[in-house]
């Protein structure tokens, strides 16, 4: 081995193993006093005497514990003999069911590789940025992208990967308390549309998208989702609820009465990232309404804060409702000014359909139809992450064929000039905004899972948006709200075998093949339905 100022030269060997370590002075968003040389030396000493086989086996063991909890088969395994880039190009000619299944597993791999205990959550490029000045600064954009990165964490059986986002929420809440007071003279905490490693919470960039007040409130829904999937009362009481309460407290102070309608509205704000500064954007009200409802549920579950809950209930009852416009669309704003020819990538005013759950096929069918009409007007072609969001929307609309059409668009080659959409996949399956932006990978994986199972309406709905192309398959390890694991086989669009395992001891309600099944399970118990 010869070392020069700019090279390592290995001679007389048929194998070379490189062990690379790296560190910075970063300790946390308030301290940059770490010694990177010392950190590197310490890590190198720990691995210096460990051979490659031991290192790779340790890595695989750590990875497999998480990865092997889940499996998905949609058929078409014969295509695995072809390279991925060839399969992506072939999407235009015929669906590749196995590539869709692989896309889900790839999204899980990317998440468990970029969001583990002690790390930061994945940013716009995950951890795969290769530029000193990356697109959008490799930040955390909280008007969709940061949240989309975690859409599959619970459902796709990687709840541990949610933890770095929870730490980010705790840190931005601490800083957001200062911003709430300085900018709005309000209690609680606020985060606008963007933050970064240093946990900034004030508005940045241009006012047409920077002054948007519900980023922190949206993040709080991830805390609630984690509880819904786990029923971990200690987590809810000690970690989640204080943050949720703080976010709600801000809006108790922030909301004002609209002089025209008498309703409480959010202003100044906008509908990301379109339309400029407005009073009362629909997305704000959806997120705030949902947040207030979560506070009421938490107060009841934890038997706490009844006085605050009463204040929140009063505000909730006065919050501006949904409006259906002259085109049959769900209005994006208080005014009926939606442009049905607008094809913008953001479809923010449908948040209540997904990832929210206030607009549903069962409980609010008229509003659901208006939301669907809005999405029809907005169109299918979009950037990669927008395609992923639309897959989830069409899954919630229980339209498997339309959702599958968008899955095909998301998998198709991003560099094909003949396509009528900007998004798609690069040869390594990275999502194209373009350029590369990882949220489409995460959102797409979640959307495919949402086509197979939904649990947001108080029951588990199996195969709610199954396309004809996926007529036969099986899945193992899907997680449902209420603390359940789902394993199932299906054929000709019908479930043929089902196993439900309880992880929290809650009663289970399932819609399977058009029938409702109810069962009381203790924690750790399961039941099987066969011969369906």
Beginning-to-end CA distance, first to last residue:
66 Å
> What gyration radius follows from the Cα positions, in whole Å?
24 Å
Instruction: Describe the sheet with the most strands.
Output: 5 strands, antiparallel
Shape label: globular
Q: Outline the low-pLDDT stretches.
A: none
What is the tally of helical segments?
A: 15
Beta-strand percentage range: 5-15%
The number of strands is: 19
Overall mean pLDDT: 96
Query: Helical amount among residues, as a percent range?
Result: 25-40%
Strand-pairing-aware structural class: alpha+beta
**Taking strands numbered 1, 2, ... along the chain, how are they ordered across the largest sheet?**
3-14-15-16-19
Compact description:
With 532 residues, this protein is α+β, with helices and mostly antiparallel strands. The chain contains 15 helices and 19 strands.
Structure description:
This protein has 532 residues and is of the alpha+beta class. It has helices spanning 36-48, 52-67, 84-90, 97-114, 145-148, 163-184, 207-210, 215-230, 233-254, 282-302, 306-318, 365-378, 384-396, 400-411, 439-452; strands at residues 2-3, 8-9, 71-73, 140-141, 194-195, 256-257, 264-265, 269-271, 274-278, 424-425, 431-432, 453-454, 460-462, 473-480, 484-491, 494-502, 507-512, 515-520, 526-530. The strands form seven sheets. It has a five-stranded antiparallel beta sheet, covered by helices on one side. Strands 12-13-17-18 form a four-stranded mixed beta sheet. Strands 1-2 form a two-stranded antiparallel sheet. The chain is globular.
């Amino acid at each position: 081995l010869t070392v020069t100022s700019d090279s390592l030269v290995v001679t007389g060997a048929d194998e070379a193993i490189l062990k690379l370590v790296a560190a910075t002075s970063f300790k946390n968003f308030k301290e940059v006093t770490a010694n990177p040389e010392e950190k590197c030396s310490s890590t190198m000493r720990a691995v210096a005497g460990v051979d490659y086989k031991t290192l790779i086996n340790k890595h695989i063991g750590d990875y497999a514990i998480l990865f092997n909890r889940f499996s998905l088969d949609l058929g078409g395994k014969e295509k695995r003999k072809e390279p991925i880039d060839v399969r992506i190009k072939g999407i235009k000619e015929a669906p590749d069911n196995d590539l869709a299944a692989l896309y889900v597993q790839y999204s899980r791999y990317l998440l468990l590789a970029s969001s583990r205990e002690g790390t930061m959550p994945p940013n716009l490029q995950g951890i795969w940025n290769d530029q000193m000045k990356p697109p959008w600064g490799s930040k955390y954009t909280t008007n969709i992208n940061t949240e989309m990165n975690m859409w599959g964490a619970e459902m796709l059986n990687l709840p541990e990967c949610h933890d770095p986002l929870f730490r980010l929420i705790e840190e931005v809440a601490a800083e957001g308390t200062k911003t709430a007071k300085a900018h709005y003279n309000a209690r609680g905490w606020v985060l606008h549309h963007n933050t970064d490693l240093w946990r900034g919470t004030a508005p940045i960039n241009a006012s047409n998208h920077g002054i948007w007040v519900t980023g922190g409130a949206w993040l709080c829904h991830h805390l609630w989702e984690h509880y819904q999937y786990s029923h971990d009362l200690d987590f809810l009481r000690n970690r989640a609820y204080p943050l949720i309460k703080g976010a709600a407290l801000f809006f108790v102070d922030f909301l004002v009465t609209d002089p025209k309608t008498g309703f409480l509205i959010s202003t100044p704000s906008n509908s990301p990232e379109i339309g400029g500064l407005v009073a009362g954007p629909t997305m704000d009200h959806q997120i705030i309404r949902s947040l207030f409802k979560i506070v009421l549920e938490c107060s009841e579950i934890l038997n706490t804060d009844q006085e605050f809950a009463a204040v929140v209930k009063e505000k909730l009852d006065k919050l501006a409702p949904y409006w259906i416009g002259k085109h049959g669309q769900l209005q994006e704003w208080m005014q009926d000014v939606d442009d049905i020819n607008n094809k913008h990538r953001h479809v923010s005013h449908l948040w209540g359909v997904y990832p929210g759950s206030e607009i549903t096929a069962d409980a609010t069918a008229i509003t659901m139809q208006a939301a669907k009409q809005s999405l029809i007007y907005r169109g299918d072609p979009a950037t990669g992450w927008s395609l992923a969001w639309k897959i989830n929307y069409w899954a919630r609309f229980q339209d498997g064929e339309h959702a599958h059409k968008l899955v095909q668009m998301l998998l198709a080659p991003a560099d094909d000039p003949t396509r009528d959409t900007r998004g798609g996949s690069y040869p390594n399956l990275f999502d194209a905004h373009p350029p590369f932006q990882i949220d489409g990978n995460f959102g797409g994986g979640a959307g495919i899972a949402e086509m197979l199972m939904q649990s947001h309406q108080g029951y588990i709905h199996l195969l709610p948006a199954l396309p004809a192309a996926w007529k036969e398959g099986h899945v193992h390890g899907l997680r449902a709200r209420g603390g359940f694991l789902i394993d199932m086989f299906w054929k000709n669009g019908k479930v043929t075998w089902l196993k439900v395992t309880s992880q929290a001891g809650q009663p289970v309600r399932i819609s399977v093949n058009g029938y409702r099944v109810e069962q009381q399970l203790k924690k750790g118990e399961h039941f099987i339905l066969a011969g369906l």
